[in-house]
Amino acid sequence: MYLNESGIRQSIGERFMKFNQVIALFLACGSMLPMVAYARPSLSLQAVEQMARTSLPVQAALANIKAAKEEIKETENKGGLALHAGFSIGQHHPLVSSNITPNYFGINPQVSLSYPLLGANAVQQNETYEAVAALSKSRAELLQTRLQVVDLTDTAFLLYWQSTDFKLIAVNFLKQLNKWSDAAKVERKSGSWSTADWLYFKKVQSQAVGAINKSEIQQDTSLSALNSILGMHIGPFTPMTPHLDQCNTSRITEAEPTNDPTIKILLAQLNSIRAEQHLGPWRYIDATANVGTQSTYDPAGNRAGYSVTAGVQVSVPLDLIGADNAHASKLAAMAESLELQILQARANFHQKLVATMGDLRIAKDNLAFAEKQFAASEANWDRLHAMMLGGPNDEFRKAVAARLDLFQAETVRIGAIASVAAAAARLRNLQPTTCKRSSTRGT
Fold first, then answer.
1. Domain 41-82+116-286+320-436 classified CATH 1.20.1600.10?
2. Distance between CA atoms of residues 197 and 195, nearest Å
3. I need a labelling partner for 31 at 20 to 30 A (CA). Which of 136, 228, 268, 422 fits?
4. Where exactly are the structural domains of the chain?
């Protein structure tokens, strides 16, 4: 990804536009009439988030879930009754040979059914527990992948939105300066402006041009990153400004983690171990019940016979109790370790939740300050703009400086809005119930 480390992180908005609708919008834009062929589509943060949910990493995680489900089916289906069939030929020699029981060459087909008991059945159950745990882990990894992809998508989108708005206000600022260029030349020729004044004016113009160039580079970089994350090509579009989410800070430290993949993975492993703990010492007793039939045919003597058998085969280790005690101690230690890891993961989650809420509060305070600074700069500019041509000679210079202050205040304000949106998105990513879904409006 080509995201700058200082780029805005995360903003997860309301998902109101489906992926297919977005693609249809792009296709429609490509087939418009010439008079509107260059119109850019408008996309919201929610729209690109919905596209992120069908990205290649998410599809790969979904495929892992499908594989885990099939693993469970395979484990369940290979247990239970088993059919055994065989065929053999050979020379038969009875223990006591006589005319009644002579030697003979026989053909011997056999067939039987067997069913695993005790230990063999426990092995199959344990494999099922492990397959179920693997499925839970795959689902948690899907959640983690989605969160990561949405996180990167939010970062790229917000940076693209910022650079688009930065460029817009920089272009407007440069247009205003270009309109004043002739007046500035007159001021310089009349002697009202010194060389330093004139150089200051040209410096401000250069700042506006530099801001435009920088914004265009950020636009290209963030759009390229967005295409890389989504695994598709999206041309330049008009990003919609997200409204700021309303987040509830009450009892946030008591919130139950519902969107933490780490905790979900640990819980799946713990559930598998607890299930295995209930299998008991009989897991080591290998027992199988079987019933079958075997027939014999002597082609030379034109004789045939058959036998039917049923029975149970049992194999028990000599130190059954010792093996079971050692295995039970191992499972108990593993369960204790996982329980402690879950407690630590919950503590980490709550710490991250509180820290993210703190970031959101700071971002909101910064936005409030930026709004005040913007309002003050705008008021000062309005006052000097009305006086710049009809007032004393230095009013023109003051107006240029005031317009520069307004431009800078507006860029700070846009950055502050993005910071609040990113902090709210991180909080909602951690705990979806904390923040209400936001709506969007056009830029």
1. yes
2. 5
3. 228
4. 41-82+116-286+320-436
**Tens of pLDDT along 30-88?**
333 333 334 578 888 888 888 888 888 888 888 888 888 887 787 767 766 677 777 77
Q: In the structure encoding, which two tokens stand for residue 98, read together?
A: 């006589």
pLDDT score, position 125: 72
In the predicted structure, residue 442 carries a pLDDT above the cut 50: no
pLDDT band at 11 (very low <50, low <70, confident <90, very high): very low
- How many angstroms separate the CA atoms of 182 and 103, rounded? 125
pLDDT of 439 strictly over 60: no
- Confidence band, pLDDT 50/70/90 cuts, at residue 14: very low
Q: What is the 3-state secondary structure (H, E, C) of the chain?
A: CCCCCCCCCCCCCCCCCCHHHHHHHHHHHHCCCHHHCCCCCEECHHHHHHHHCCCHHHHHHHHHHHHHHHHHHHHHHCCCCEEEEEEEEEEECCCCCCCCCCCEEEEEEEEEEEEEEEHHHHHHHHHHHHHHHHHHHHHHHHHHHHHHHHHHHHHHHHHHHHHHHHHHHHHHHHHHHHHHHHHHHHHHHCCCCCHHHHHHHHHHHHHHHHHHHHHHHHHHHHHHHHHHHHCCCCCCCEECEECCCCECCCCHHHCCCCCCHHHHHHHHHHHHHHHHHCCCHHHHCEEEEEEEEEEEEECCCCEEEEEEEEEEEEECCCCHHHHHHHHHHHHHHHHHHHHHHHHHHHHHHHHHHHHHHHHHHHHHHHHHHHHHHHHHHHHHHHHHHHHCCCCCCHHHHHHHHHHHHHHHHHHHHHHHHHHHHHHHHHHHHHCCCCECCCCEECC
